[in-house]
Amino acid sequence: MKTRLVFEDVRTWIPDLVQALFRAIPTGVGAKGAIAKLSAKEVRRVLERGAEWAIERGYGEPADLERTEEAGRLAGAEPDSVSDAAIERGEAQLGTLGSGNHFLEIDVVEEIYLPDVAARFGLERGRLALLIHSGSRGLGYQVCDDSLSVMGKAMERHRIQVPDRQLACAPLRSSEGRSYLGAMAAAANFAWANRQVMMSLAARACEQVLGLSPRDVGLSLLYDVCHNVAKLESHRIDGRTERVCVHRKGATRAFGPGHAELPAEYRDIGQPVLIPGDMGRGSYVLVGTERAMEETFGSTCHGAGRVLSRARAKKAARGRDLVEELRRLGVAAMAHGRFALAEEMPEAYKDVTEVVDVMDGAEISSRVAKLRPVGVIKG
Description:
With 379 residues, the protein is an alpha+beta fold. It folds into two domains: 25-98 and 134-220, no CATH class; 100-131 and 252-379, no CATH class. Helix content is 38%, strand content 22%. Strands 1, 2, 3, 6, 7, 9 and 10 form a seven-stranded mixed beta sheet that branches. Strands 4-5-8 form a three-stranded antiparallel beta sheet. Strand 6 (272-278) and strand 7 form a beta hairpin. The longest helix is centred in the middle third of the chain and has 36 residues, at 175-210. The radius of gyration is 20 Å and the shape is globular. The model has no long low-confidence stretch (mean pLDDT 96).
């Protein structure tokens, strides 16, 4: 999300903003209570309508849907394919951040690489931006867990072998495959609604802390793009347009200029691409390219990638004050849970600049701007 806020004007308020965001948006495993608990019937409405459900209830603006992949509502969602256990886990978790590598970050736009594209995206050097990485929470986790045993039995019947149970799969046209795609689409819709609610809560927190109007804060959505999802898309293969299922696990969509599914305001320049790094070094905004459409099914990387497991990171963090270390880097940080910062400390990740440079050099996605973190909340 972009803002009208100039970092130097609000620099001293960053710790207060971090505290306000931490209060407004619950974090961590099992986090709940950002908004009133929903009934099971209402959760199913979220699974069907996605981000539109949130906007209809005052969380954001209709224009946000134009700047959201699939307009925040993946076709083919089947709430009836989502278990009661998953529904129950989602009843109190809408508007929450979760744990692991999920975060909400306050950034300052530090570098601009493509001025014309950055201007179209509304990014200006020295202004604040907010970046959210979160998904479908416990509901989505339960959808995955429920599907593993079903897929396992399907693989036996279809004589499919995989090296890891987590790679369980089934033919798209099988009953198991169709059911999973419907449940996964429903979980994706929950994730879009979840981020939409968090964005609205974050905007309200900033306005309250700074004592500014919504117009003066100017927090608005640049783009919402998902990953860890399988989608049916049309792509050119060997000179023909084919309908294929694209799995973006560890990848994110990066459609190039001219694609019909892009918002009208970005269609001639390409899709905004958000590449998070770590909470000490920064993140990037890129733009999709025609080369991505030709070579990677309109996909690029989705983050820096780990170099230390969570266990190794916790071991490396023993005896260290990571909050103070981040403060010395100019980052105000708050986290829920004893090991949240340790598992996600900067050296647990590759330098995202090196990853982005590879994508930029290969012309799969082009650098537009670098964001430097100044505040972060973690689960």
